[in-house]
Write a structure and sequence with these properties.
The protein is an alpha/beta fold and 330 residues long. The protein folds into 2 domains: 38-131 and 257-325, 3-Layer(aba) Sandwich (D-Maltodextrin-Binding Protein, domain 2), CATH 3.40.190.150; 135-240, Periplasmic binding protein-like II (D-Maltodextrin-Binding Protein, domain 2), CATH 3.40.190. Helices cover 46% and strands 17% of the residues. It is built from 12 helices and 10 strands. It has helices at 6-34, 51-67, 82-89, 103-111, 119-122, 147-156, 171-183, 195-203, 214-222, 270-284, 287-294, 304-325; strands at residues 40-44, 71-75, 97-102, 123-133, 135-138, 162-165, 188-191, 209-212, 227-231, 257-265. The strands form 2 sheets. A 5-stranded mixed sheet has the order 2-1-3-10-4, sandwiched between helices. It has a 5-stranded mixed sheet with strand order 7-6-8-5-9. Helix 1 runs parallel beside helix 10 (270-284).
């Protein structure tokens, strides 16, 4: 029997390797194209009915229309969103669990030292859904109209001006601490158990000021029950008319945004991750979705790279702010 020469054996081995590689590539592509082949969980770490829940449902519905698959919203609120994040962190990295991430996704990493997860290691960004500045508002009885008025009053009475928040470690709390650090003022933090009581006490004049989302204060500002002083964006936003920014009004480079994005588990196959991101960008660029998002905030490009850049900056900002303010869990 003739024995194949060494060159023939090498050729056979090379051919087998090429066939195996081609088969792998075909399977790789088929894997991505089949996503999603079953329902996708979308974990929202906030209660149903709020702005974050509405946003997640709006985008999830569009993703369902595009892919022909069901995207199931699961509300897992509590503990400054850490309950929902922890639930998502335990899921398989297979592309069938998406988490709605907001500012507490980053902030709690530094406020709570013993979390069961690390958002920097356990999750990867899919895309940014929305950004919006907060609004610094004051009770009308103070007679403050402009950022200069507010800064003057705060500096004249250190520790006597106060600001309400939904709770320690919340985004409004951290925005207030950042403002104190960059503006060089001393404001007293007054935490509440949720945004509703904080808004109610500001309306009643029991507290002086607050950093709230535009949707929480628009009606009250129009009714003259609150005075909008400034926004926390780096640039003015069309949804807030001519409201000046703190950055242009005596606190250079001040910026803090409320934001929402979708993330999934680290270790998700790259082809599936690319397919998920592609579908999300497509959804966010559809005119009907853009119009809905623009009603309550700014519409980003929705890409993974854009969200990754934002997250990187948020980690730097809030780690530094939490340490400087010595914020600890309640």
């Amino acid at each position: 029997m003739n024995t194949p020469s060494s060159s023939t054996r090498r050729a056979l081995v090379l051919r087998a390797a090429c066939v195996a590689a081609l088969s792998g590539l075909l399977a790789f592509g088929a894997h991505a194209q089949s996503w999603p082949s079953k329902p996708v969980r979308v974990i929202v770490p906030f209660p149903p009915g709020g702005a974050s829940d509405t946003l997640a449902r709006t985008v999830a519905q569009k993703l369902g229309e595009q892919t022909g698959q069901t995207f199931v919203i699961e509300n897992k609120p509590g503990a400054a969103s850490t309950i929902g994040i922890a639930e998502a962190a335990k899921a398989p990295a297979d592309g069938y669990t998406i988490l709605l991430a907001a500012a507490p996704f980053v902030i709690t990493q530094y406020v709570y030292p013993k979390l069961s997860y690390d958002v920097r290691k356990d999750f990867v960004p899919l895309g940014l859904l929305q950004t919006t500045p907060l609004v610094l508002v004051a009770h009308p009885s103070l007679g403050l109209k402009t950022p200069a008025d507010f800064l003057r009053a705060a500096k004249a009475s250190p520790g006597k001006m106060n600001y309400a928040t939904p709770g320690a470690g919340s985004l409004p709390h951290l925005v207030g601490e950042l403002f104190k650090q960059q503006a060089g003022v001393d404001l007293l933090h007054v935490p509440y158990k949720g945004g509703g009581p904080a808004v109610a006490d500001l309306l009643a004049g029991h507290v002086n000021s607050a950093f709230f989302s535009p949707i929480e204060v628009q009606a009250h500002v129009k009714a003259g029950k609150m005075t909008a002083i400034a926004s926390t964006g780096l640039k003015r936003t069309s949804g807030l008319g001519e409201l000046p920014t703190l950055a242009e009004s005596g606190v250079p480079n001040f910026e803090s945004l409320a934001w929402f994005g979708f993330v999934t588990l680290a270790g998700t196959p790259p082809d599936v991750l690319a397919r998920m991101s592609e579908q999300l960008v497509k959804a966010l660029n559809s005119p009907d979705i853009r119009d809905k998002i623009a009603q309550t905030g700014d519409v980003p490009a929705g890409t993974q790279a854009e969200f990754a850049d934002l997250l990187k900056g948020e980690h730097v900002r809030w780690e530094r702010t939490v340490k400087a303010a010595n914020i600890t869990p309640n």
